[in-house]
Amino acid sequence: MTNSNAKNxxxxxxxxxxxxxxxxxxxxxxxLDNAIPALEHYGFKASFYLELQSPxxxxxxxxxxxxxxxxHELGNHSIFHNCSASKPNRSWVEKxxxxxxxxxxxxxxxxxxxxxxxxxxxxxxxxxFTPPCFDTLVAGESYIPHINDLFVAIxxxxxxxxxxxxxxxxxxxxxxxxxxxxxxxxxxxxxxxNVLFHGVGGDHLSISVEEHNKFLQYLDNHRAxxxxxxxxxxxxxxxxx
Length: 241
Ligand SMILES: [Zn+2]
Description:
Layout: E1 18-25, H1 29-42, E2 47-50, H2 55-59, H3 61-69, E3 73-76, H4 104-122, E4 137-138, E5 141-142, H5 144-147, E6 166-169, H6 176-184, E7 192-197, H7 209-221, E8 226-228, H8 231-240
Zinc ion (ZN) is lined by residues 25-26, 51, 77, 81, 132.
């Protein structure tokens, strides 16, 4: 995967100034119900980072398959969504999903199985990864160098494994105006913008359907400025540059 600290000089399709990757994490019902129809309406392709223990995987497998078949990326977000319970406000992290209690070998094995699981869903051998909670340390050592070669790219890591020309807009952004403001003020030298969503009109950390639509409408109105595509497509362009 790309490990460049140099400024990216990828030429984006249609001479757009920046590329935007829309991510939808954790395999949530509201993404299938609300996000995908909205993306389809505008013809945007996104990346869905599936937490493979999500009940939606078996309950709505055909829909996830259809999501991949229609050009969206099913990204790896591990099976159990391991996060560090030792960080502040992490009382929700269950014991069996606590990154602090794992070994690097078991985390890497889980992520490999997640790739096989995703292959069984969409038949694809290549994809990207988003680390759950963006936590990367297992007993003080990052697991990222151990999985670099498994992916076209890894999203949003600040430990040097992520390209210096990209950054992430995430967290609790609730309105299109806030997202638009962040995008319009994005650092000049960073030309890959990652916008992370969770729930859309439901589930956790959600943005309303109306605000999500309003944001997609903005992107639709600014196609000359922004190239919107799945993260794997964006990073394949970067890697082949
Ligand atoms: Zn997640």
